[in-house]
Design a protein that fits this description.
The termini are far apart. The chain is an all-alpha fold. Helix 1 runs antiparallel to helix 2, helix 1 crosses helix 7 and helix 2 packs antiparallel against helix 3.
Length: 246
């Protein structure tokens, strides 16, 4: 029996929230319970704490919103939506600030550890470009979601992707933890695989429930992976490195 249509989005939002918790538990949520990490010899910088709280609230907000829909509290869902619109501004501002100070943070950290930026944070340029592209998509998706708020099929798909665009950080950390525990390089495959499964699941959901894949789902999926590919390509160029001052 096919589950109610809202159940997919509710389950996806819970999945993302759990991934975020698992990915950042050692360095953020459960940091007081974990031995001090070399990556943060002087503790977690305040801007990253603020950024972490803001994004955590966003993922919790997404779960709350689909819970309201599931319980048919549409009026409350719509009222709370305006809180989400305002909070989205904080998500963008904190992300931009975190990205801006990240290179300097890595340089200082490398000096503290008598190491190099490449050793401390391999793929730094790629990560920065990915943050830039995904933050751009977040802005575009949240604006479209607000404009199309009276069209549920479009609205909820764009909102879903406002969570998916930033989930790469958590999925990479989860994959990295598994690689560490298994003493392998499985993270190189597992990280991208988690993202592929999450993003492709919407296409599967469409086909199972509507016997076709909605154009909006294709657009979200395509733009997401285009951003991923462009980040990888640009990061490998002199232009990609020079424009970020790295």
């Amino acid at each position: 029996m096919t589950p109610p249509r809202p159940a997919y989005f509710h389950h996806m939002n819970w999945t993302m929230l759990v991934l975020v918790f698992l990915g950042f538990a050692p360095s953020f949520y459960l940091k007081p319970l974990v031995a001090e990490q070399p990556f943060y010899p002087n503790g977690l910088p305040v801007p990253y704490i603020v950024h972490g709280i803001i994004l955590t609230v966003w993922y919790v907000f997404m779960v709350v919103q689909t819970t309201l829909i599931k319980n048919k509290k549409i009026a409350t869902h719509r009222k709370l939506g305006w809180f989400g619109a305002a909070w989205a501004v904080l998500v963008v501002l904190s992300t931009v600030y975190a990205v801006t100070i990240f290179p300097g943070r890595m340089v200082a950290l490398a000096q503290q550890l008598n190491s190099t930026v490449d050793e401390v944070e391999p793929g730094l340029v790629f990560i920065l470009w990915l943050d830039i592209f995904m933050c751009t998509l977040f802005v575009a998706f949240i604006i479209i979601a607000i404009i199309q708020r009276l069209k549920p099929d479009i609205h909820k798909r764009f909102i879903l992707y406002t969570g998916l665009v930033f989930i790469f950080a958590a999925s990479n950390r989860v994959a990295g933890t598994i690689a560490y525990l298994t003493d392998s390089s499985i993270n190189l495959v597992l990280g991208p695989l988690i993202l592929l499964v999450l993003t492709a699941s919407l296409l599967v959901h469409d086909y199972k429930t509507q016997k076709r894949i909605l154009p909006v789902s294709w657009w979200c999926f395509g733009l997401y992976w285009l951003a991923m590919i462009l980040s990888f390509v640009i990061a490998g160029t002199d232009f990609g490195k020079s424009i970020l001052n790295i």
